[in-house]
Amino acid sequence: MTTDYVTLDRTGDKMPMVGFGTWKVTDADAEDTIYNAIKAGYRLIDTAAVYDNETGVGRGIRKAISEGIIKREDIFVVTKLWNSYHNKKHVRPMLEKQLSMLGLDYVDLYHIHWPIPMKFIDPAKCYPPGWIDPETKRMDYEPSPMQDCYRALEELVDAGLIRNIGISNFNVQLILDVLTYAKYKPAVLQIELHPYLQQSRLVEWTQKQGIHVTAYSSFGPAAFDNFTSRSSTVGPLLEHDTIKAIANKHGKSTGQVLLRWSIERKVAVIPKSSNEGRMKSNLDLFSWSLDEEDRKSITDMNQNIRFNDLQDVMYGFELPLFD
């Protein structure tokens, strides 16, 4: 039976295999949502600068700590460095701002959100800045080497401000480059992953390097209905006949089947829900398993369709990151 956590190589930290994602959770709703998620049993919370909810997320975490539901060491907190702050001189100030918003002394995992260095935007003028410079109305790149950014993150590890370094939306070439100079190997790669985009070779290769994988958007186009036209080209995974048949066979929900499929690949998941029942059912992934027929049926669903493709959302700017 699959365990409910993985052990990160360098630190020995236990990272839960099921966390609570916060993309699209508003800052106003975040405190109650995160507090309720922790009460339901979640011990990993995933946020990011660009989600614009770190203040509320931090309040929810601290409320749970103050009420004795958890201790700080019981919760694995993940956040991410935004593209506008890749320059090494901006990395520490940005993390310190995020820690201040969260109300925490350190985070357990700090991801480079995208391997795309963009022009610095003063957070005093605009935060979070997003993809487009509010003044120029363009997405402006900055010639900032990834090595410099990564070195700055390693300094934050040494300073005790982050426990582990993560990378997100990186391909094999970028990971290989990081591995040539990393003093502290990336602990986790976070990527879009679901039955329509299975990325088997990337997952297997990354795991062989001792880097754990976390899936985002495990429910596929459900998260992107208003974000990309590609979501209209396929049916919702939660309503797919194959997934529904497997769910009925095991007496589980379609969401549980999709999450269990990732867990069995040793890939962590970060679903979210505001519904208490679904919060709890999304955690119920370790007392049952898929069979070989189930896994084969889901494997056959792969279409290599990526919903979070920047080429679709760059407001006319070309960025074929995944081509």
From TrEMBL:
<dbReference type="InterPro" id="IPR020471">
    <property type="entry name" value="AKR"/>
</dbReference>
<feature type="domain" description="NADP-dependent oxidoreductase">
    <location>
        <begin position="18"/>
        <end position="301"/>
    </location>
</feature>
<comment type="similarity">
    <text>Belongs to the aldo/keto reductase family.</text>
</comment>
<protein>
    <submittedName>
        <fullName>4-dihydromethyltrisporate dehydrogenase</fullName>
    </submittedName>
</protein>
<dbReference type="InterPro" id="IPR023210">
    <property type="entry name" value="NADP_OxRdtase_dom"/>
</dbReference>
<dbReference type="InterPro" id="IPR036812">
    <property type="entry name" value="NAD(P)_OxRdtase_dom_sf"/>
</dbReference>
<dbReference type="InterPro" id="IPR018170">
    <property type="entry name" value="Aldo/ket_reductase_CS"/>
</dbReference>
<dbReference type="GO" id="GO:0016491">
    <property type="term" value="F:oxidoreductase activity"/>
</dbReference>
<feature type="active site" description="Proton donor">
    <location>
        <position position="51"/>
    </location>
</feature>
<keyword id="KW-0560">Oxidoreductase</keyword>
<feature type="binding site">
    <location>
        <position position="113"/>
    </location>
    <ligand>
        <name>substrate</name>
    </ligand>
</feature>
<feature type="site" description="Lowers pKa of active site Tyr">
    <location>
        <position position="80"/>
    </location>
</feature>
<dbReference type="Pfam" id="PF00248">
    <property type="entry name" value="Aldo_ket_red"/>
</dbReference>
